[in-house]
Structure formats: C-alpha cells, structure tokens
C-alpha cells in the first residue's frame, strides 16, 4: 500500500463523487487532506467520513471559478498543514446538453469557467507551493470527453480537451523541477453527475450503460485508486500523460 504519511493532499470537488472517494483514498494512504468544494454540507460530510476512519482532513469552502477563492484555498492548505504535495483538481460540471446551434453563450462559458478556468487557477496557486517543497504531483480531471467527441456536449468536450492541453503544457514547464502533472480520463463512473445524465432520457441512460466493454459503469474508488497511484513514487516517470480509466470504452474508437 502507498505510504503518504506526512504528505498533504488537496482535492477540489470533494463534496461527493470522485472527489470524495479520492480524498478518502489519500487519507487512507496516510496523507492529510484538504477537502474543497462550493458545497459545504457534502464537503463536511467527506471530512467526517475521513475522521471517522482514523484519517486527517479539513474542509475549505472554495469556488474554483473565482481566482481569489482558489488563492485562499491554497493559502489555507499551507497554513493548516504546512505545505502541499499532491493536488487532484477534480471540480467539474457537465452542463445542459444541446446541439451546438442551440447552445447559449452563457452555458458554454459556465462550463468552461468551472472545468477549464478552475483547473488553471488551481495549478497557478498549487505549483509555487510545490516548488517550495522541491516537488509534487498534480492530477487534473479530464474525461474520455477530453479525447473524443460526445454529441450535445460541446462545452464539456471542449473544456476536457483543454484540460489535457494545459496539463501537457504545464508538465513541460515544471518537468525538471520535481513537479509531475498528468490528466486522468474516466468514462462513466457511478456518481451524481452520471445519475443526472442518465435521467436526461432513456436513450442517454442506455448509451451510458452500454459504452463500457467491461460490462458496467465504474465505481468512484476505481478512479481514486489510480489518482493515488499517479501521485505515488511508483509513477515517478509519468508526466504530461493522459491516463485513460474507462473499462475499455475508447477501444470502440
Ligand atoms: N462521473 C463520471 O462519469 C465522470 C467521467 C469523466 C469525468 N468526470 C469528471 O470527474 C469530476 C468529478 O465528477 P463527479 O462525477 O464526481 O461529479 P459530481 O457532480 O458528483 O461532483 C462534482 C463536484 O464538483 C463540485 N463543484 C462544481 N462546481 C464547483 C465550483 N465552481 N467550485 C468548486 N467545486 C465545484 C460540485 O459541488 C461537486 O461536489 C468532474 O470534473 C467530471 O467532469 C466524471
């Protein structure tokens, strides 16, 4: 098992879903975890789950679309636990599906604000703290939608491709300074986001259920385990990579 004792991990969007599972996995590995989300109740529940299992965690309310909020999040992380070693920039929204000709400007920007600018602001304030420690690992949450198209989801697909792009550029910038930066690309994982998507229409539900050759949707812990591995020394030669965790979904082309 990965030993992260003495390390500090920051997870955004950790009020539920993939973020909560990953915060729990970091804590189980021994890291102190900052649980960040715009939703306070769920974030505090995540902290309670971690404390109840014998781990260490603190909740910080943060809106990743607001630069000053992200700056304050990272400052609070350092003030609370003394530094930052690992970050999982996970906050994201799927947006309301519509063909591009019917997509509103406001909706496109809303999705880009959370999924792209949120990741940009996080990296901007995480990197300097990791440089002070002599290194660290950032995992940015993209999607299989960062590697292929999905009809009706232009802003989501654009934002997730952009996450892969800024991950690669930033990885190059800090590769010699001990900071590894990768993106993770899940297919459908059983969270509130997928439940909302499946509720859109029976066709959507059927498409999601049948997209994985492995025969089921994924579980949040199956992403969390990979994020923790990517942050571990076992992944020491990985940076700038796009890590697909998709039950074989992209094998369909
Ligand atoms: N579930 C999937 O199938 C799947 C697949 C591929 C990628 N993803 C990505 O994984 C990430 C997590 O998704 P999830 O499935 O756990 O969804 P989720 O809706 O359960 O969780 C997303 C979290 O992000 C938080 N959030 C939203 N806007 C925010 C903001 N402005 N500031 C801070 N936090 C904010 C939400 O409050 C929520 O807790 C997202 O980036 C999503 O795009 C999910």
The CATH topology, please? Rossmann fold
CATH class assignment: Alpha Beta
| Widest sheet: strand ordering | 3-2-1-4-5-6-7
Largest pleated sheet: 7 strands, parallel
Helix-strand topology string: EHEHEHEHEHEHHHE
Q: Which hetero compounds are present in the coordinates?
A: nicotinamide-adenine-dinucleotide
What structural class should be given to the helix and strand makeup? alpha/beta
Overall shape: it is globular
Query: Helix amount, in percent?
Result: 40-55%
Q: Based on the structure given, which CATH architecture is correct?
A: 3-Layer(aba) Sandwich
Low-confidence segments, ≥5 residues, pLDDT <50?
none
Concise overview:
The protein is an alpha/beta fold and 253 residues long.
Describe the structure.
47% of the residues lie in helices and 15% in strands. With 253 residues, it is an alpha/beta fold. The protein has a seven-stranded parallel β-sheet with strand order 3-2-1-4-5-6-7, sandwiched between helices. Helix 6 packs across helix 7. The radius of gyration is 17 Å and the shape is globular. The structure holds nicotinamide-adenine-dinucleotide. The site of nicotinamide-adenine-dinucleotide (NAD) has 29 residues, from helix 1 and helix 6.
């Amino acid at each position: 098992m990965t030993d992260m004792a003495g390390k500090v991990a920051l997870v955004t969007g950790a009020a539920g879903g993939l973020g909560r599972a990953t915060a729990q996995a970091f804590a189980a590995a021994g890291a102190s975890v900052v649980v960040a989300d715009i939703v306070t109740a769920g974030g505090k529940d995540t902290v309670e789950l971690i404390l109840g299992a014998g781990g260490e965690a603190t909740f910080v309310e943060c809106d990743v679309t607001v630069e000053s909020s992200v700056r304050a999040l990272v400052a609070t992380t350092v003030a609370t636990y003394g530094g930052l070693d690992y970050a999982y920039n996970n906050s994201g929204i799927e947006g309301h599906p519509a063909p591009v000709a019917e997509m509103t400007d406001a909706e496109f920007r809303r999705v880009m604000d959370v999924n792209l600018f949120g990741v940009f602001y996080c990296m901007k304030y995480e990197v300097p703290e990791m440089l002070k420690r002599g290194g660290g690992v950032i995992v940015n949450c993209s999607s299989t939608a960062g590697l292929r198209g999905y009809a009706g989801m232009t802003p989501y697909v654009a934002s997730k491709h952009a996450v892969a792009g800024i991950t690669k550029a930033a990885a190059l910038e800090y590769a010699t300074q001990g900071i590894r930066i990768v993106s993770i690309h899940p297919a459908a994982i059983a969270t509130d986001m997928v439940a909302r998507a499946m509720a859109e229409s029976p066709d959507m539900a059927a498409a999601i259920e049948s997209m994985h050759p492995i025969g089921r949707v994924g579980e949040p812990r199956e992403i969390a385990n990979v994020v923790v591995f990517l942050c571990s020394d076992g992944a020491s030669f990985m940076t700038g990579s796009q890590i697909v965790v998709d039950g074989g979904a992209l094998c369909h082309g």
